[in-house]
Amino acid sequence: MERAYIPGAIARQPWGVILPLGLLVTFGCAVLYSAAGGHFQPWALTHGVRFVVFLAMAMLIARIPQTLFRHAALPVYGVLCVLLVLVELLGRVGGGSQRWLNLGFMQLQPSELMKPGIVLVLAWFYSVLPAPEIKTWRAIGPAVLLLGLPAGLVMLQPDLGTGLAISFGAVVVMFLAGLPLRLFLGGVVAVAVAAPLAFFTLLHDYQRKRVLVFLDPESDPLGSGYHITQSKIAIGSGGLVGKGFGQGSQSHLDYLPEAHTDFVFATMAEEWGMLGGLFVLTIFALILSWGLRVAQRAPDRFSRLLAAGMVTTIFFYVCINLMMVMGLAPVVGIPLPFVSHGGSSMMTNMICIGTIMAVDRWSRLQPAGLR
Question: Where are the domains of the chain?
Answer without folding.
Answer: 17-363
